[in-house]
Write a structure and sequence with these properties.
Chain B: It holds the Pfam family ABC_tran. The complex is a heterodimer. Chain A is mostly helical. Chain A is built from eleven helices and no strands. Chain B is of the alpha/beta class. The chains are: A mainly alpha, B alpha/beta. Chains A and B meet through helix 1 and helix 5 of A and helix 2 of B.
Chain lengths: ~250, ~300
């Protein structure tokens, strides 16, 4: 398992497209949005809180693209079949593949918040809880990444699904603008999106955020979505293994 | 000894393998030969433990189950990483660590002739170098049984020669090798025993010498402006490469006769030579020459 995790981490850290989607692009968006919306605002920090937490959740979803590409490649080039002839178990393979992606998302979220603290005077009441929320968000998006990878015939399927999930979740979950400013219908639908709860969980750890939900409830709901992701992945993994080996 | 008993494998409506019975002795190089789609890869994947849903049984009679090294038909390497990292990974998967792992990486790099490219990324390698590394990954844990599925597809002559040398070296170390290929000359050159597979069935099996003796006759090949009447001279096996192939149990005598006739009638053939029986001839004798496109 650790050998697979190590290999995957090395591979992903050399992947320039992952660095672009998961690090460069969120930084560019944050800088751009802050320049547009926070320049003349009386409370820059409040805007930074909204934008940095919102974009942290929004761009965390893009890890699914890299996950689908990686799993589909493993299936197509015979890697999964080859692993079946070694002492590595399917469980070891999946966990080994999954762990680095989870770590990358946690790293991504923490880099963005550190940038917020240094550049935009963001302050966090409970840094430990912020890290905890980052871990839960990482688990949730990567569990969906594994699930989508299991059912994706090609890399394009993953790309398309990721964009639908990312943009739909961003609009419904209030990642781009304060949730309370959204139309009531959107707000009602939005509470069913995992991105809403991820965002609310992050906001709960920041000072002076009246609309932040209780972090415990948000984490529980994220855990539920993670469970659904892994359950779907479990349903698809036999098919994935069968297709890899035939 | 590996005993394969009544193995059947089906992919939806296609019967990939039908009633396969085989015994593979330890310490030999055993070839699976047959056209594309014959069922070689299916059988290889079952033996390598990749495909588990099949009917029948496979027994290994040795006291300790042999450690297995599988070289798949696909080159499955991490192209963005170095040869060393790839070997390191496959060693770790097989439980190697510490000094032994480092030593084994060096040994395998040397065996596959990639020591001077150890730290280069695999994506910069030629097809032959990738194939050699693909084999090296399966040898990291010094397995007793090496299963290779078409390991020389698309390689340059030098890499093919190097791969052959590696396989001969493995044979000398007493490893059991199962080698699937549709290149019959490779099987003939490397293997001690062979199973012909066609349409998912074993058509024939045995030692290569026995099969050549049983199914193929030596022949004389003549090419040139030969009078038609000569075709009744002896049994004509077949027209081949623009010439004629004469089967004979005494090819030297036939060669002499044909040479004498040519001299008497002032005919200069462009080629007159002795043809040793080949595995390919045995295969065609057993299976015919019709295309297998519908298989």
């Amino acid at each position: 398992m650790w050998a697979v995790a190590n290999l995957e981490a090395r591979k992903q850290l050399q992947d320039k497209s992952l660095l672009f989607w998961n690090l460069a692009l969120p930084i560019i968006f944050i800088i751009g949005f802050m320049a547009i919306f926070a320049d003349d605002a009386p409370d820059q920090t409040a805007i930074a809180n909204q934008i940095i937490t919102g974009f942290s959740v929004f761009f965390a979803v893009f890890i699914i693209i890299s996950m689908v590409i990686s799993f589909v490649k493993d299936r197509e080039n015979g890697f999964v079949a080859r692993m079946a002839s070694t002492p590595l178990t399917p469980g070891g393979y999946f966990i080994g593949k999954w762990l680095p992606f989870g770590a990358i998302v946690v790293g991504q979220i923490m880099i963005l918040v550190i940038m917020g603290i240094i550049v935009y005077d963001m302050s966090i009441d409970q840094p430990f809880f912020y890290l905890l929320v980052a871990c839960f968000v990482a688990m949730m998006v990567t569990s969906w990444g594994v699930a989508i990878a299991m059912f994706s015939k090609t890399e394009n399927t993953g790309l398309a699904l990721t964009q639908i999930i990312a943009f739909a979740g961003a609009i419904l979950g209030g990642l781009w603008m304060p949730f309370e400013t959204l139309p009531e219908t959107i707000q009602t639908i939005g509470t069913f999106s995992p991105q809403y709860w991820a965002h609310q969980a992050f906001l709960s750890t920041l000072p002076g955020q009246p609309d932040g939900e209780d972090v415990g409830i948000a984490l529980l709901i994220l855990l539920g979505y993670t469970g659904v992701g892994f359950a779907l992945a479990f349903v698809g993994y036999r098919k994935f293994l069968r297709e890899s080996r035939s | 000894m590996i005993t394969i008993q009544n193995v059947n494998k089906r992919y939806k409506e296609t019967r990939a393998l039908q009633n396969i019975d085989l015994s593979i002795p330890s310490g030999v190089c055993y070839g699976f030969v047959g056209p594309n789609g014959a069922g070689k890869s299916s059988l290889i994947k079952i033996l390598a433990g990749v495909v588990k849903d099949y009917e029948g049984s496979i027994h290994v009679s040795d006291a300790n189950p042999p450690s297995l090294g599988y070289v798949p038909q696909e080159v499955c390497l991490e192209e963005t990483l170095s040869a060393t990292t790839n070997l390191h990974f496959y060693g770790k998967i097989q439980g190697l660590k510490g000094e032994k792992l480092i030593r084994q990486v060096k040994t395998v790099l040397d065996d596959i002739g990639l020591t001077n490219r150890a730290n280069s990324k695999v994506k910069t390698f030629s097809g032959g170098m990738k194939r050699r590394l693909n084999i090296g990954c399966a040898l990291m844990h010094e397995p007793d049984l090496v299963i290779m599925d078409e390991p020389t597809v698309g390689v340059d002559p030098q890499s093919r020669l190097h791969i052959f040398q590696m396989i001969r070296s493995l044979k000398q170390q007493g490893k059991t090798i199962i080698y699937a290929s549709h290149y019959m000359e490779e099987i003939e050159e490397l293997c001690d025993e062979v199973a012909f597979i066609d349409g998912g069935k074993i058509v024939e099996q045995g030692s290569i010498d026995d099969l050549l003796t049983s199914y193929a006759q030596p022949a004389v090949f003549i090419k040139g402006d030969i009078p038609k009447a000569w075709l009744d001279f002896e049994n004509v096996i077949q027209q081949k490469d623009g010439g004629w192939l004469f089967a004979s149990s005494n090819p030297m005598q036939l060669l002499g006769k044909l040479a004498q006739r040519c001299e008497e009638q002032n005919i200069m053939p462009s080629q007159l030579s002795l043809m040793q029986p080949r595995l390919e001839d045995v295969f065609f004798t057993l299976t015919g020459t019709a295309l297998r496109d519908t298989a």
